[in-house]
């Protein structure tokens, strides 16, 4: 296949580009050229805000759009004259409001979520803009994505605590649950969509099992070769000041995914891979000073 990946240099889009290169597909990436490109891709230099003549005389079997965050992002690409057969948009579970009925189903209400704010409403508008022009597009809504190349300071923060032999400051008793999805499983899901062309066009994706944050931290420590020791933090302390997730628990209904993707990567296996990568690529992660807050306010 001739595949266009928007982005291609950071986390999800980078992993997707590399995944399909390894599958011997003809992969093109669209970005500004400010970062190193994945080996084996065909680089198309361009700014999504100005795509005049960028796609002249170019046709793709599929566009895998990772970089559309707003209606304007979507419209600029679709109105550029680009031609394609299939379109896969990586949206987000942030489109579901926090007050909605859980587990969230694809046909459930979409509205502003107080924890995600404009990010979620912008993704809603991007989805609507896409479906108005490409009715048979595929839309995937993942929960928290993880894996190698993750530039968001989530598991990497826990790895840092483990490598520094620190006690881990945990929100309360750590019973809040999270749902994850490995970026490789996201790629496998895209492959299945393109091969099988299922009837369902909008799909939640994620691991079947949720995990408590205490269990997740323990697995991160174990992946780093350490054993976690915890300090419980009073819930009155703002959680995002010292912990990489908001105090928001939700779960996606993944019944439609389960029909197509029978198994997902075990979380511990994915975290071990992430730790192995992070040890040698710490500068690629956008770190936050959680430890500084802990030492100043909680120790």
Word description of this protein:
The protein is of the alpha/beta class and 299 residues long. It folds into two domains: 2-146 and 182-204, NAD(P)-binding Rossmann-like Domain (Rossmann fold, 3-Layer(aba) Sandwich), CATH 3.40.50.720; 155-180 and 207-250 and 265-298, UDP-galactose 4-epimerase, domain 1, CATH 3.90.25. It has nine helices and 13 strands. The protein has helices at 11-22, 71-78, 118-133, 155-163, 183-196, 213-223, 255-260, 267-280, 290-298; strands at 2-6, 26-31, 42-45, 59-65, 83-90, 138-141, 144-146, 168-171, 177-178, 180-182, 202-204, 211-212, 230-233. It has a seven-stranded parallel β-sheet with strand order 3-2-1-4-5-6-11. α3 links the parallel β5 (83-90) and β6. The N and C termini lie far apart (55 Å). The mean pLDDT is 97.
Q: What are its keywords?
A:
single chain; 299 residues; alpha/beta; Rossmann fold; UDP-galactose 4-epimerase, domain 1; 2 domains; seven-stranded parallel beta sheet; two-stranded parallel sheet; 9 helices
Strand content: 15-25%
Q: Would you tell me the overall average pLDDT?
A: 97
The name CATH uses for the topology of the largest domain is: Rossmann fold
Radius of gyration: 20 Å
**Low-confidence regions:** none
Q: How many helices in DSSP terms?
A: 9
Taking strands numbered 1, 2, ... along the chain, how are they ordered across the largest sheet? 3-2-1-4-5-6-11
Distance between the termini: 55 Å
CATH architecture of the largest domain: 3-Layer(aba) Sandwich
CATH superfamily name of the largest domain?
Answer: NAD(P)-binding Rossmann-like Domain
| Residues in helix, % | 25-40%
Order of helices and strands: EHEEEHEHEEHEEEHEEHEHHH
CATH class category of the largest domain: Alpha Beta
How many strands in all? Answer: 13
Largest sheet: 7 strands, parallel
Overall shape: it is globular
**Alpha-beta classification:** alpha/beta
